[in-house]
Design a protein that fits this description.
The protein has about 350 residues and is an alpha+beta fold. It has eleven helices and 15 strands. Helices cover about 35% and strands about 20% of the residues. β3 and β4 form a beta hairpin. The two termini are about 40 Å apart. The structure holds acetyl coenzyme *A and zinc ion. Zinc ion (ZN) binds next to loops.
């Protein structure tokens, strides 16, 4: 039975092209691991329509891993991920939750666990709050295997992105929750070291067992806090998945609405540019959100922003929910500097 080390030389030589599955419509539909949250039909539709199916080459690949043991959780992958072909034959793939290396048999995995010394992601901790949430910044070039392994995990829940091999141009911001055993992975986003398109997020993912608990919102907020520190406007890489779009829409709407209401209360006038600058969002994303929420009206030859009553009621309801938030004061981060000649990063 293969272990990562035996078949891949610690994950560095994986051949992604050999991992193609056979198209088969009867098994191509992802199962629904979120059923405990209800809304199965809605989510099933989200996963199998729209932007999730934009990459035809990826759709034709069938889900190859049926179950993954990760820390104390069992994960049930939604999509194909290019683990070595031999792993498709295994009932369970065992992944070390700290170093992310993977094993096809329990004995090798247990042996690994006895030796593994990692208790948190291998990078700089750039954020920690009182609830035990931390963010680690990891350079794809310096921690190539770890980042590739993270992308392999992520790919099991992302259908339209292909990043898992060339991790060098990316930084990874990994969110963890602390326990007595270490800092456990909850989710992450990757970010290009230099994005020609001004993207502040390439891929974003919350592990399924933690979804719909507000962690995606934290990841998104963190990405915008970094953009604020950089003094740039950011936007997520397109296309967004449907779950990505829902989460971004929600984040954008909440934050724009909050700012509009507080400006209104202070009797300050507000423009799209001012909203964009305050939230580090592109003017395009601000405008699209205003349009989606029907907040832009054309009145006597002029565009105006209005706040529909229903949105104010919705905001009141949202406020009653216990919300996780990033405290920007606790971010200890400076934008990494890039030396073109060496393609290395200095801090
Ligand atoms: N159904 C309906 N609304 C949803 C759903 C869903 N399944 N998921 C998120 N939302 C909306 C809700 O409005 C939610 O707020 P609410 O719970 O207060 O109503 C809001 O998004 C934020 O939800 P979170 O709990 O903070 O987000 P979560 O931790 O679940 O993470 C994420 C969202 C990262 C998109 C997650 O669904 C995921 O990992 N999906 C698989 C990978 C993926 O598609 N990533 C995005 C790809 S696009 C890109 O990478 C740039
Ligand atoms: Zn390990």
């Amino acid at each position: 039975m293969p272990s990562q080390q035996e078949s891949l030389g610690a994950g560095d030589d994986m051949d992604i092209d050999e991992a193609d599955g056979v198209p088969d419509s009867s098994v191509a539909a992802p199962r629904d691991p979120l059923s405990e949250f209800g809304r199965e039909a809605e989510i099933e539709k989200l996963r199998t329509s729209g932007s999730m199916t934009q990459n035809p080459a990826e759709i034709s690949r069938i889900r190859n891993i049926s179950r993954v043991q990760f820390g104390k959780f069992d994960l049930f992958p939604w999509y194909f991920s290019p683990y070595p072909e031999a792993f498709s034959a295994e009932d369970v793939v065992y992944i070390c939750e700290f170093c992310l290396s993977y094993y096809g048999d329990e004995v090798s995995f247990r042996r690994h666990r006895l030796k593994c010394v990692l208790h948190h992601p291998p990078g700089n901790e750039v954020y920690r709050d009182d609830s035990g949430i931390s963010f680690f910044e990891i350079d794809g070039r310096r921690q190539r295997t770890w980042c590739r392994n993270l992308c392999l995990i992520s790919k099991m829940f992302l259908d339209h992105k292909t990043l898992y091999y060339d991790v060098d141009p990316f930084l990874f911001y990994v969110m963890t929750a602390k326990s007595e055993h270490g800092c456990h992975l909850i989710g992450y986003f990757s970010k290009e070291k230099e994005s020609a398109d001004g993207y502040n997020v390439a891929c974003i993912m919350t592990l399924p067992q933690f979804q719909r608990q507000g962690y995606g919102r934290l990841l998104i907020q963190f990405s915008y806090e970094l953009s604020k520190i950089e003094g740039k406007l950011g936007s997520p890489e397109k296309p967004l998945s449907d779950l990505g779009l829902l989460s971004y829409r929600q984040y954008w709407s909440e934050n724009i609405l909050e700012l509009l209401i507080s400006s209104y209360e202070k009797e300050e006038s507000v423009t799209i540019e001012a909203l964009s600058a305050a939230l580090a969002m592109t003017t395009q994303d601000v405008e699209h959100t205003l349009q989606a929420l029907k907040m832009q009206v054309y009145h006597r030859g002029d565009h105006k922003i209005v706040i529909p009553e229903a949105l104010i009621e919705q905001r009141e309801k949202q406020k009653l929910k216990r919300r996780r938030l990033i405290d920007p004061e606790k971010i200890q981060w400076k934008p990494p500097t890039f030396t073109a000649s060496t393609r290395t990063w200095g801090w």
